[in-house]
Design brief:
Layout: H1 2-21, H2 38-55, H3 57-68, H4 76-94, H5 115-135, H6 139-155, H7 162-182, H8 189-204, H9 209-229, H10 250-257, H11 261-284
Amino acid sequence: MWVLGALALLALGALGWWAAQRPPAIVIPPRQYPPNNAYDAYKQIAQGVSDLFESDARLREIESRLFRGGSAPVSQAERRYFLQKMQPFLEAYRRHTEQPCVAVYEYDMNWLFSEMAQFRRLAGVESLMIGDALAAGREDEALLRLQALLRFSEQIRTEGTLIHYMVGVTVSEMGLEPLRERLPQLQSPKTLEAVVALARDAEQRHTPVRAALTQEYYLGLATHRDIASGNIKLQDLHRWGFNDLNALSPEALLLQSGIGAFFVVKPSLREYQHYYDSCSRSLRNPLGNASLCPQTQSDF
């Protein structure tokens, strides 16, 4: 009888230990999109740009010399060819800068943000057009183009991850660069007032980085959830850069065995949530913190 009792106690202990290791329920709010979401149109435009460059070797070669330098300067004829090819896409994106916009993606580490490269490409071409307009004394045209690009840069990072945020910042910087270079030569009060109005408009539409941090947090939560459910295997994490474990270490052997998730998800999730909370507090009060986020294990 005592053997049965001991076995029962052992089973209860094992059950209690197993329950203690299970990660808590991970709840992530579903992504929601507004009607007539501009991001859908932007993704279609990005795909069109990608298809164009994929099919036009001359365009790729001119682009390389325009933006990355090359052995031969770009001729006026080549420049016209390049801008004429891109003009329809510039006109297309500007038609959507007043629409509601929420970045379209899923909380999935396998999600590909292929449109990001094309957004940068569009911004580079628009920056050329802004510079040309300023050089020719067409300040009104330049500022209208810049206004559209700045609005676009905010739209593509709305409810986006840190990738969206960083690309949005890059897009806005590319548009602002020719204005910064030309600003000392701008003398017209009307033009300078328009620049101030442009800055105010951009400030009102600004997306704070803490909003991107929240979306990045949800993406990480989804990864923990998928590991816990078996949709992602621990041994697959090297695809995202988690490949620094010594192949002979106990941690690496546990990871490669396929049974490590049970042991690592709960403590990893706890540290991940603590890290997010620390970063979030710092972003709410950046002047009161020496560093934005903990950097090492000892900082937790």
